[in-house]
Amino acid sequence: MYEELYSAYTQDSIMMATPMRLVVALYEGALGAVQSARHCLAAEQIMERSKAVSKAVEILAELIASLDREKGGELSARLHKLYSYMQQRVLEAHMRQADAPLAEVESLLTTLLDGWRQAAAKLEAAAPAQSASYGDTDPAPCSFAETF
Are 61 and 86 in contact (CB under 8 A)? Predict the structure, then answer.
């Protein structure tokens, strides 16, 4: 019962989220998966570690797929390289059963997540002023390139 309610709440949250909030949610998911992989590595829980690694790699793939290379230009290209690098490091850590690559990816994701949270907060703070000028209550549409 609880899982069904949580799933419905999560689905509603995703459907109502702004693009910036969705990116933040992806970063949070990737970071949580990497942290879980580190915990499972230390606890020698191979199957759980495999699941966490797969989840982290899948989320990073989703971040890659979400990049708008036309509008994002150089920044999108750099993020693509960084996300690919993080995928490689997570897989390397899993293959070698090494914590250091996971710790590196955790640090990178933490830094990126902090930046995206700050950007999302600034965008949301500006939204009331924008919606007043647009004459409605919806925040102005935002693309990745317009944000940076």
Answer: no
In the structure encoding, which two tokens stand for residue 69, read together?
């290379």
| Domains of the chain with bracketed CATH | 19-147 (1.20.120.340)
Tokens of 132: 């007043």
Residue-level pLDDT at 30 = 98
SS3 45: coil
What confidence score (pLDDT) does residue 1 get?
59
Task: Record the tokens describing residue 113, joined without a space.
Answer: 């997540």
Burial class (CB in 10 A: 0-12, 13-18, 19+), 60: buried
Q: For residues 14 and 25, give the distance between their C-alpha atoms in angstroms, rounded to a whole number.
A: 9
The label of the residue with tokens 């990116």 reads 23
User: How many whole angstroms separate alpha carbon 132 and alpha carbon 139?
Assistant: 9
